[in-house]
Amino acid sequence: MNEEKDWASGAESLEEVEVPETEPEQDNLLDLKQELERAREEVRQYNEHYLRALADMENMRKRTSREREEYVKYATTPLIKKLLPVIDDLERALTMSAQHQDYASLYKGVEMIVKSLHEIIKTEGVQAIEAAGKPFDPEFHEPLILEESPEHPSNTVLEELQRGYTLHGRVLRPSLVKVSN
Asked: Which of 51, 53, 87, 174 could form a Cys-Cys staple with 142, CB 3.0–4.6 A?
């Protein structure tokens, strides 16, 4: 037979032996149960706060994404508003030139419109790249033609074929140039 058997109570092991609880132990057990319930309630509240904060973060991320998309979509609005009068001027110039066939006035009007456009892009931070007569710089110039020129030193820009531009120092479009060989 099993040596652990408590012959007096008939229990198989000591764990099965019922020990009558005393009143202080019952109070202590009741206190522990209440403390456990309080801890469970606190965990439930923390979990609710966590889930609410998580939902708030997700809503903020979505709202920020929508706002960023909206900003990008309408970021060019101020520039477009500045360009609309230039378009109006071009349309008026076309209308007037079709009616009067005065090409000198048309040329003068288009010249004024080009000047207006240059002013608008200048206010936006766009600068023209100076090329003619300058040393060739591959960062700002793109060579289209190489030409022998005894009058100019090698790698000098002889002619600007298409103007290049920078925006706040960053090249938007390099100048297309003819370079001395």
From this structure: 174
